[in-house]
Amino acid sequence: MGRQVAITFRRVTRDDFPLLGGWLAQPYVARWWNHDPTPAGVERDFGPGLRGEEAGEDLIALLGDRPFGLVQRSRLDDYPDYRAELAEHVEVPPGAVTIDYLIGEPELTGRGLGAKMIMVLVERTWTDHPDAPAIIVPVVAGNRASWRALERAGLTRIGSGDLEPDNPADPPLHHLYRIDRPPISFGRRLP
After folding, report:
1. How far is CA 119 from CA 9, 72, 99, 126, 180, in A?
2. What is the pTM of this model?
3. Is 20 helix (H, G, I), strand (E, B) or coil?
4. pLDDT beneath 50, residues of the chain
């Protein structure tokens, strides 16, 4: 039996931009992310976060030492228009966080790594954002692999509704998933 390799995260750096461009150019990523994978496009989309001009976090997911994915995490309160769009369909508590994610390495897709990455990120979110009561994630309804990964990671579908799709080729129907911060568990007091 092989040993389990840990999934960790670190902030995106400028040195990651070529890697991000390569991942965004992968057909299975480009289908859902709809980003410009050129150096100028990656700079436009990820430079503001790197310079602190964007409220969200761009994180590289690592499997051991190997970068394999990207996660974007943000507080919905920092994006009031987007928060309002989601709130038309589901309750969005103050302080709620949202995520987006991809696996950039083709040979690592289809192995359950997306769900594991999401599980680790959820646990890290409770630590990194101690006042976040929930994580809410909209996924275009046609992206079955993405919403199945959320389900395997423990998120629950709480609604569906029309939202502006990332890719204009997609219909607007999205499924909305949520996971709440677990309650604090106090152990038994010893006599």
Report:
1. 12, 14, 12, 11, 13
2. 0.91
3. helix
4. 1, 189-191
Helix (H) or strand (E) holding 81: helix 80-87
| Neighbouring residues of 53: CB distance < 8 A, sequence distance ≥ 6 | none
Q: State residue 169's pLDDT score.
A: 87
Q: Report phi then psi at 59, rounded to 5.
A: -125, 135
Rounded (10°) CA dihedral 124, 130, 133, 138: -40
The CATH architecture to which 7-180 belongs is: 3-Layer(aba) Sandwich (3.40)
Q: What is the pLDDT of residue 1?
A: 45
189: Cβ contacts below 8 Å, ≥ 6 apart = none
Determine the pLDDT at residue 188.
Answer: 52
Within 8 A by CB and 6+ apart from 52, the residues are: none
Name the residue ranges covered by the structural domains of the chain: 7-180
Select from 168, 174, 87 the least CA-distant residue to 134.
87
Token pair of 25 as six digits: 């150019």
Measured CA to CA, the distance from residue 79 to residue 58 in angstroms comes to: 15
- Identify which of 94, 101, 96, 114 has the alpha carbon closest to the alpha carbon of residue 166: 101
> pLDDT at position 163, please?
96
Q: Return the half-sphere exposure (C-beta side, CA atoms, 13 A cut-off) of residue 56.
A: 21
